[in-house]
Recover the amino acids of this structure.
């Protein structure tokens, strides 16, 4: 659950950059947004792997 909470926090931190990019046209905010989205992608993959691992360990038990 810790990684899921990290994901929510990360999403909240880039929300301002999304607003600046889409609504105000700030290209620098777009760069930060892209970086944040890449971090979200990596963290989401870690969560997926963790879920699969936990699911499979329950089957074996």
């Amino acid at each position: 659950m810790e990684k899921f909470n990290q994901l929510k926090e990360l999403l909240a931190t880039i929300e301002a950059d999304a607003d600046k990019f889409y609504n105000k046209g700030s290209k620098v905010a777009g760069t930060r947004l892209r970086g944040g989205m890449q971090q979200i992608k990596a963290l989401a993959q870690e969560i997926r792997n963790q879920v699969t691992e936990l699911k499979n360990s329950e089957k074996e038990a």
The chain has one domain: 2-60. The chain has a mean pLDDT of 93. The helical segments are 2-24, 27-60. The radius of gyration is 16 Å.
